[in-house]
Specification:
- By secondary structure, the protein is mainly beta.
- It has one domain (2-98): PDZ domain (Pdz3 Domain), CATH 2.30.42.10.
- It is built from two helices and eight strands; from the N terminus they run E-E-E-H-E-E-H-E-E-E.
- The strands form two sheets. Strands 2, 3, 4, 5, 6 and 7 form a six-stranded antiparallel sheet that branches.
- The radius of gyration is 13 Å and the shape is globular.
- The model has no long low-confidence stretch (mean pLDDT 88).
- InterPro entries: PDZ, PDZ_6, PDZ_sf.
- Pfam families: PDZ_6.
- This is PDZ domain-containing protein.
- Residues 1-79 form the PDZ domain.
Length: 100
Amino acid sequence: MNRVGGVGLIFETDSVNQGLRIADMKMNGPAMKSGIDMRGMTLVAINGQPVVNSSIEQIASKLLGPPGSKVQLLLRPPMSSRYARPIEVLLEREAFAIVD
């Protein structure tokens, strides 16, 4: 069993924006602890690198990292949101177990 750090986001495919949309946030995970409801937002970039047309594996490799390290996400809110433009969120990865 290996330990890796993640941000506690669950994604679904967003065919309109050719990326991944946040479907849910893990209870008490880093994303939820940020206080920002990210559900429905589309992932635009990770640490300044655009993710449009990236594979799930490429995106996962950028989101996962050492527990305690930080990752910056650029998120595009849905059109119906109170946020008018993309927002940047800095999250600290927390450990979770990966069972081989």
